[in-house]
């Protein structure tokens, strides 16, 4: 008893919902493979928003841009038009310079994992030089990692 | 006789070639309707380039941006994956403030008209205020209209 | 009193909400003009869904496809990254062969109309021949027009 | 001496050229990260075409579809609007079931490597079951690997 880390205390992974658009399908009748990366973007933006950080404000007020330096995806099952999709997003690692997100993309009906992905980013300033994320933001991002260990 | 403007003397409409990408199709097996507008963008950029104006330089050096204010398209036949496509582009009208382009989108094989479109644009400055295109550029754009009458 | 058609009795135009994706912006810092047509697609799919018709089922079970034959848009104000957007969609006209939708695209904050658009469609069968929408579906679509007059 | 396979005899990596579209940029002023995967698609389609295989015909006549099961990209430098881009594509590995491509994405001016990527695919039949690529196609794909070792 008194477990300091009961499962209930853990923040769930952040979940973003979307519905597959016709524009996102291709003539194989499934979602075109590059579009999963658009969904990952939605996932990380909403994760960041859920932490009280608005990515748009980081760009406009802090002059910080999150440039993608690596991305990857494994496709397990095809996503189809009109399906409801959940993007689970997690901060996998973060420093003042770097953030890594991991993603699990699921369909709601049937309940299945469709894909797993990862992206790695670095912070840039307005002049496209490497920049450091201020501590107050870093703390917020890191808190989600501690919470999930 | 001795017409100063024989048909043969007319500059042909500007033609841009492209090949349909898989990403541009949807699950009906044809090109998604919004993508014709991407092709029109390619057509007008290449038309402008063919006149010795680089749209990118207008943005970077003149601080002029061409904002779309109207667009339209009539779809006659579907475009399909891997087809070679020709976008014919014409300056239909232009002033210091406004440019209108018209487009005819054809497949090469079979030789057919697939769609016809139009876009209307206004010039903006960096602060997003209406701007005037300098005379030297306007003259170039207008010359293409005179030539085709 | 007892007006058979009080404004309150009218079904509101159908509204679909979305948030502007980073992928939808371009380097002018606003939404690329072709993407408004993707939003119109979301609007009409959701309108049709709100009437109890699932467009996906029309494709799969009835073998009916809604091919776009005309589209147009007037852009009044730019849409920006991360804005919440409402797409109002209306059936403007419909027969067994043809459906026309009109759209008004608004931002929530500030509350402004950003664009107005229209699309015209014809029904096709699996062999891409013109098809007739069965009465039971047509009645549903037409009911939304009567309701709004 | 008299090596039957001098470097000069090697087929160069397959190169596909394209020009960055405005639609492909985002508000950071560079190409949106998912669009590199669209360029990889162009690269592998053109590589396959250069070998005398038309991917479109594989779909239509052989009933074979190349489903992506993994993709990845490392972004080294941003690609910008209107740049000329070269996609170098190589068959990294192939069996009857699987094909792996690797890509190097370069800008022409300045001459720089912008990104490196990889995709892994499996062959499916029309019913979405794993399928085997006929020998005559496999031989062609494998010949490009032998040639480059």
How would you explain this protein's 3D organization?
The structure is a homotetramer of 149-residue chains. With 149 residues, chain A is of the alpha+beta class. The first copy, chain A, has a single domain (12-147), classed as Hotdog Thioesterase (Thiol Ester Dehydrase, Chain A, Roll), CATH 3.10.129. Helix content of chain A is 25%, strand content 34%. The first copy, chain A, has three helices and five strands, in the order E-H-H-E-E-E-E-H. Chain A has helices at 35-50, 55-62, 135-147, and strands at residues 14-19, 65-75, 84-94, 98-107, 112-124. A five-stranded antiparallel beta sheet of chain A has the order 1-3-4-5-2. In chain A, a hairpin with a 4-residue loop joins strand 4 (98-107) and strand 5. The longest helix of chain A has 16 residues, at 35-50. Chain A is elongated and about 45 Å long. Chain A starts with 13 loop residues before the first strand and ends with a helix. The relative contact order of chain A is 0.21. The model of chain A is unreliable at 1-10 (pLDDT under 50). Chains in contact: A-B, A-C, A-D, B-C, B-D, C-D. Chains A and D meet through helix 1 and strand 2 of A and helix 1 and strand 2 of D.
């Amino acid at each position: 008893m008194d477990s300091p880390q009961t499962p209930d205390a853990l923040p769930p992974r952040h979940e973003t919902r979307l519905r597959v658009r016709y524009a996102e399908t291709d003539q194989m009748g499934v979602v075109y493979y590059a579009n999963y990366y658009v969904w990952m973007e939605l996932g990380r933006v909403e994760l960041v928003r859920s932490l009280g950080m608005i990515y748009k404000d980081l760009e406009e007020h802090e002059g910080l841009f999150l440039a993608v330096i690596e991305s990857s995806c494994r496709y397990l099952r095809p996503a189809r038009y009109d399906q409801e999709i959940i993007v689970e997003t997690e901060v996998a690692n973060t420093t003042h310079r770097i953030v890594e997100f991991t993603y699990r993309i699921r369909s709601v009906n049937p309940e299945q994992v469709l894909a797993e992905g990862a992206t790695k980013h670095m912070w840039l300033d307005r002049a496209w030089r490497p920049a450091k994320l201020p501590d107050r933001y870093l703390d917020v991002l890191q808190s989600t990692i501690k919470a999930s260990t």
